[in-house]
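G., the chain you wanted modeled:
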Amino acid sequence: MEYDYIIVGAGTAGCVLANRLSAEREASVLLIEAGGRDDYFWIDIPVGYLYTIGNPRTDWCYRTEPDDGLNGRSIGYARGRVLGGCSSINAMIYMRGQAADYDHWAALGNRGWGWNDVLPVFRQSEDYQHGASEYHGAGGELRVEERRVNWPILDAWREAAVACGIPRIDEFNRGDNTGTAYFQMNQRKGRRWSAVRAFLDPVRNRPNLEIMLRTQVEGIDLERRDGGLRARGVSVRRDDGTRPRLVARRELILAAGAIGSPQLLQLSGIGAPALLGELGIEVAHALPGVGENLHDHLQVRTVYQVSNTVTLNRRANSLVGRIAMGLEYLLFRRGPLTMPPSQLGAFARSDESLETPDLEWHVQPLSLDKFGDPLHPWDAITPSVCNLRPTSRGHVRIRSRDAHEHPAITLNYLATDADRAAAVTGLRVTRRIMAAAPLAPFTPREIKPGPDIDGDTALARAAGDLGTTIFHPVGTCKMGQDDRAVVDDRLRVRGVAGLRVIDASIMPRITSGNTNAPTVMIAEQGAAFVRAAARGDDR
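Predicted structure as C-alpha cells:
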C-alpha cells in the first residue's frame, strides 16, 4: 500500500497536515491514528474534559515515573488517544505564547521561526470572533471565541491582581502577555472546536486522503541507499490483527506528539546507542537527543474557600444546579458546561529584572483534590500558578521493544534551584492577590497549602505536594543545530532522508502558555516545508 505521504498521529498536528498536504490533488495522503473515532458524547461538550481525561477510551492514561521534585509522587499524564488527539480532550485555551519565545528559537539558528515569521502563520488558520486585525485572522479553520459564562469571584480576582500591580488587558496573544485577562477558547457557539472539526472534517471526503484508525505503528521501515539512510514507510498492526506494509513514496511524517514521536524513533533504532543497546535494538542511526529535553509547565494548585458567592462547587453538587446547567447549555449553549478548566489568566514576572513574564495563573471557580475526584462541598476557587520557563529537564525512554508498552516518562520537576525559587515566588504572589481588597467581601480562607506553611523550604515542599502537570509536554525531538538536536529548522530528522517530525516535540524551549495553538502553527510551517520540498525547494 503506497502513498506519497504517510502521517503518523491524527492529533492536532496530524489533522492540520492531512488538510494541507491533501490539498495537492495529485498527492496521496495516509493519516494513521492508534485511537478510534471522536464520537464520544463528552468530547464536543467543553466541560467534558472531566470525563475524557483519565478515560482509556480517549486518553493514553500514561503515568510519570516517581519524581523527587514531587516528593516521590507519580502523576497521571493525559495524552489524547482519539481522532483529534489532545485537541479532543484539552482545555481549549487559545494561547500563542510570547514574542520572545519564538525570537529565542530563531536566536538558536532556526531560520523562519521568529515572532515576525510565525505571527502570519498563526493568523492564516485563525477565525477570530472579533474579525481580522494586526494580530488576528478571520476566515481560517480554527475558531477562537470568548467565554460564555461569568463568575463574580473571577471578576474580583482579576481586580485583586490589578491591585497587586498586574495590569488589566483586553486579551493575550499580542506578543507580550503581561497582565490579566480572560482566556479565549477554541470553541464555536459553545461547542469544542477540535482539530478534527477545524481541519479534518472539511476535507475527509477528498479522494486522495485516507484515514486509518485503530492502527498501532510499531516501527519505521528504513533502508540504506548510496551510503545514506532513508525512511521508506512504517510497520503497523491494526485492531483486526492485519499487518499491512505501508510505503511512503515522498515523505514519512511523525506527528505523534512529545511522547509518541520519540518512542517510535527509539523503537526503530534511531536514538541514543546506550539505551538501544540495553534493549537489544540494533542502532540504525545514532541520535542521542531523541527523547531528551522533555519539559512541561508544572502547575501548583492552591485552593481557597470563599463565601458570599456561588461557585461551580455548589452548582455541581446540587441536583437542581446540575439540571439548570444542563438546560442552559441545551437551550442557549451558554453557562458552566461551556467552561474550559480555567477561564481567567494572569502573567507576571517573578523578578523585575526579567524582560518578560515567567509566571502564569489559571484561575478556576471550583476546587477538587485532583481531576476525577468530586468537587468540594463548599464554595471555593483554585488559583493555579506555573513557571513558564522551567529549567528542569527530563526524558522519554522506551522500556522494551514492544510498541504497545508505555515508555518511561521522567519529568524531573523542580530539579533546579531556579524552578524551586519560581514556585515559591508564585505561591507568595498568589497569597498577596488573595489578600487584596477586591477579594475581601468573599472572605477567602486558604485551604491548600495552608496558612501555617511558610518559609522558602516549606513552600518549596508544598509546591512538590500540590504540583501537577498542565499537560504541555514538549522538546523531545527538539529543533536546532547542537549535538542534541533531533530535527533541523525544516523539521527533517537529522541523518535520515524522507523523515520529518512535525509536532510539539520539536520545540527547543517551551512557549509561555498553553501549547495547542503553537502546535497548529508548527504543523502549518511543517506542511509548507513538505510542499516546498515536493517542488524541489528543500533548503
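The two ends are 30 Å apart (CA to CA).

Shout if anything looks off.
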